[in-house]
Every structure is written in C-alpha cells, then in structure tokens.
C-alpha cells in the first residue's frame, strides 16, 4: 500500500464563496492539483477529490474539497479518512487564519483550533486534534467590521495582486510538509519573506 496523505482545503461550497478569504484553503488545493494536471470528481464522502502523487513513486496525495459548509467540515474529512485508510498523522488541513497577517503561512501539528470552527469540527469528527495544519494568513479586519463578515468577503484589490504568490507558497508548504516533514517545512516557510 503506498504512503497516502489526505490533503483537505477548507471552505464553503458554491461560486458565491470561491473568491472569499474563507476559501483560500481550497484555492491552495486547486493549485496543487493544477500543478499535476488533475481535476476533481465527486466522492461519496460529500467532497470533491483528485488523486495524484507528490512525485513519481509516491507518496500518494488525495486532494479534497468538502462540499459541506466550513463549520461542518468534519463529516467529509472523517469519511475520506476512513475510505482511504488514512490516520490523523497523514492528514493535512489547509485553512484561512485570522490571527496571522495576510501573506504569511504557518504550519503546526495538533493544538487548539484558535476559534476556527472548521478546524474544531474536523478535530471532533476525527476524535483527535493531532493532524497537520497549513494556516494561510488573511489578517483581521481594520476598524469595526465583524470578523465573520470579513472572512466571507472577497480579497481586496491589493491582496488579490499578491494572492497567487501566497497560494503558491502555501502549496509549496504542503508539498514540503509531506515530503520532508514538519520541521523542514517550518524552517523554510516561517522565515520572513525577503
């Protein structure tokens, strides 16, 4: 059996949410699939999946985008983990993070959910918080805007100019995490950008 990793981008379903900050995790998954010429297909676990390889010969990557709303992402993630026989230590969740500035990526395994309801639901469904997270910084709103509204807004014009770089860097971080481990990925992607 090949070394299999489940890589999940959290977000909300439908075209209304595709360009929003909350869906940046799914944009990263799209980029990883695009690099390999893969397309997504429907899966019975209420998700869209693309199966590919990190590099020829392995590890195998199951790229997934739940069809559920963000706050109930756990069911699809748990269903996919069972279907592919993947334990929590081979699951990577890619998600937006309010408490990290825009254009910044942080990686960790386990710990709290930082108030992120999607991550909370995944941990509950898996029965453990001990999975890897690639946290893509979206920053907090300036002024009095409710963070719940902020995450559902599209990226601003200035952000959109840098978004392809951020998404590409986050895709690189996922690939390095799987290929080289957490510490190597942290050492590269936690460093300030030149």
From TrEMBL:
GO annotation (BP), single: rescue of stalled ribosome
Organism: Microbacterium rhizomatis
Reported function: Hydrolyzes ribosome-free peptidyl-tRNAs (with 1 or more amino acids incorporated), which drop off the ribosome during protein synthesis, or as a result of ribosome stalling.
The name this protein goes by in its record: Peptidyl-tRNA hydrolase
Source organism, top-level taxon: Bacteria
Catalytic activity: an N-acyl-L-alpha-aminoacyl-tRNA + H2O = an N-acyl-L-amino acid + a tRNA + H(+)
EC number: 3.1.1.29
Annotated Gene Ontology cellular component terms: cytoplasm
Record-annotated site: Discriminates between blocked and unblocked aminoacyl-tRNA: 12
UniProt KW RNA-binding keyword: yes
GO molecular function, one term: tRNA binding
Uppermost EC category: hydrolase
Chain positions of site Stabilizes the basic form of H active site to accept a proton: 96
